[in-house]
Amino acid sequence: MNPYSPNDISLQESQPNERNEWRQDAHEEPSSLSARIWKFRFHYFLPLPAWLMLFAVSLPPLVLAFLIPFKDVKIHLGVAGSPWAGFEAFRTLFGDDIFRQALANTAAIKLSGALLAGLLGLGLALALHALPWRRLRGALLVLFLVPFFIPSAVLARTILDLLASESTFEQGAAAFTDPSLARLIVMAAALLKTSGIPVALALAAVAFGPANPDAGYARAVFVPALRAVGAFALVQLSGLFTADFDLIYAQAHALIIESLMTVDLYVFRWGFHMMNLSLAGAAWLVQFILHLPLLFAAYFLIRRYLSPSLFVDGRTDTPVRQVSPAWQTAGIAAVSAYALVVGFMLYRIFVRPFLLASEHAGAPGAWLHWPPVVAFLFVAVLTAIGSMVMTVLLAYPLTVRTLPGRGLYKLVLIIFLAAGPMMVPHFMYLRHFVNTLVPLVLLGLFNLAAVFVLKERFNQLYGDRKRLAERTGRGEAHAFVTLFLPAMWRPLVGLGVLQAASLWNSFLIPLIYLSSAEMHPPILLYLRTAFEGGAWGVPFSDPSNLQAAALISLPPVLLLLVFRRFLTADLFLGQSRNH
Prior knowledge:
β1 and β2 form a beta hairpin. This protein has a single domain, classed as Orthogonal Bundle (MetI-like fold), CATH 1.10.3720. The protein contains 28 helices and two strands. The radius of gyration is 25 Å and the shape is globular. The protein is an all-alpha fold. The chain starts with 8 loop residues before the first helix and ends with a helix. α8 packs across α18. The N terminus is likely disordered.
């Protein structure tokens, strides 16, 4: 048996006594603070490079974030040289009906998305679990996760193209001018993109549920699935006032932009279109203040009540609980219907464009040049590898429950996680690197949600072995090399895959920092072509442009297919917060 395998029965039996073992560990620790710090000195030196980099990238912008709203910021003067303006930005902000609508829109999108995706995911997970064919369950789960790896801009524009091409002119035009229909499109795209995550979480929780065959269906299947879906909903609600920027921006035309306004779009519009950096900074600060307690609450509730159902060993071959033939038939029908919906959207993105004849000769998308494609693919992969290193360095100290300063360590990480990418503060800090790839690399190095996912996974599955190593006098460096890295390298690769896909798919950071069209990544070129109605004399609806969108969407999907064994359900949890 693999010495690091979580299937070891000793680990499963030790989890109920975790708190007693923690108390025992605390009792066995040296009594003086200096002695305990010296004992765990490795945990203070190991993350030092990551902390220095995190502070260098994010601490000055966080300080600027608390100054910008109170100043009349001018780019050429910088924050320090701009005059003080008092609370004028906040008076303007709270008197702005559009901002209040942005708050309401964002909360409505996130609340409805968490509820609908959770309910749909729970239903699909229960239906999938009832299927007696294990390979089919796995294949359908991968199918349901594919939309998450497709760029949000491509997903939104594909739905718009579907409405425009399969309807009358008036109905197609309504997709671009009707605010109610635009909101429905956003909801449908968000639901399609995220619903696979609660399905994966619920299936994994059920597979790791009570192994006792006498346990009832509710205790063995429904309750673990419900707990996993509840954790997904909590993560979503921890970012209640942020939404998928790419998804909203991709269809926020001038005629309907106010009806689709979210807080992130408000900050971007006022900060980079209107150049009112103070008002944009005030909006961001309000968003941050609202998010911080929500994130703390979600972390506490998941850590306290739901964590054992989430961070599991990924078994999927648990015997299927017997259900009635009627329920099994209903489950097959539900799964088949949703699989048809997902399959049809994938057909529209990846197959249909290549079945249509283009009236314009040439390769797919006259605007799609391969050197920038290769360059940005390389940047995404390289930055994702750097993110993996930062995640390991920051996560390992959190595996010691009695580490002096552990609470402060987590507090600072959660504050930076709540801050996220700070649009205006980061721009004022990194504005001298406009039209370079430096901001893309620096802002992509840290996925702090992954730090908590990795440490929680290790503590749940390997915490007893870590405590045993501490009691037997083995050094912390020895445990890091012989236990943590061998146990966590597979989920770490999975986190790197998710980060690379996210960097490739997102266009927010390039939209802010890359004003030169020659440097735009493929997804931003695609979006610009969509907004302009075409490029190089080729209308956007031409199959060559749709073929280019398919090629842009292909690398993240290939990552899913190639590394699906590394992508356990819990790894998606942190990635779902901003969608």
